[in-house]
Amino acid sequence: MIVSLGAGDSITGRSSTRLCKFFGDLSYPLYITHYPLIYVYTAWVTRNKIPATYGAVMGGLLLAASITIAYACLKLYDEPVREWLKRRFLVRGT
C-alpha cells in the first residue's frame, strides 16, 4: 500500500526531492545491514528480560546505528563499486 501511494504521487520542491533521493539510495544498504543487528537486539532483549523502557531507548540507538552503518556502506562500498562497474562495463568504444 505504501508503494502504491508513493508511486502515484509527484514530488515538488528541492528539499523534498533531496530527502526522497536520500532515503531511496539508503533503502537497499539499510535492508541488507539491519537484519543481523535486529537478531542481536532481539536475542539480547529476550535472554536478559530487558525492561520495555530501556529496550526502547536501546532500540532507538540501534535505529541510529543502523542508519549510520547503512550510510557508510552506501558511500564506502555501494557507490564506488557501482561507479567502477559502470566504467568497466558500460564504457562505449571509440
H-E order: HHH
The end-to-end span amounts to: 47 Å
Using only C-alpha atoms, the radius of gyration works out to 18 Å
H/I helix tally: 3
Strand content: under 5%
Overall structural domain count: 1
**Mean pLDDT score:** 89
Low-confidence stretches: none
Describe the global form.
extended
Helix content: over 70%
Find the count of extended strands (DSSP E, 2+ residues): 0
> Main sheet, how many strands, which sense, barrel?
none
> So what's the oligomer here?
single chain
Describe this structure in words.
By secondary structure, the protein is mainly α. The chain has one domain. It is built from 3 helices and no strands. Helix 2 crosses helix 3 (52-89). The longest helix is centred in the last third of the chain and has 38 residues, at 52-89. The N and C termini lie far apart (47 Å).
SSE topology sketch:
Elements: H1 2-7, H2 14-48, H3 52-89
Structural key phrases:
94 residues; extended; mainly alpha
Q: Could you give a quick summary of the protein structure above?
A:
The protein is an all-alpha fold.
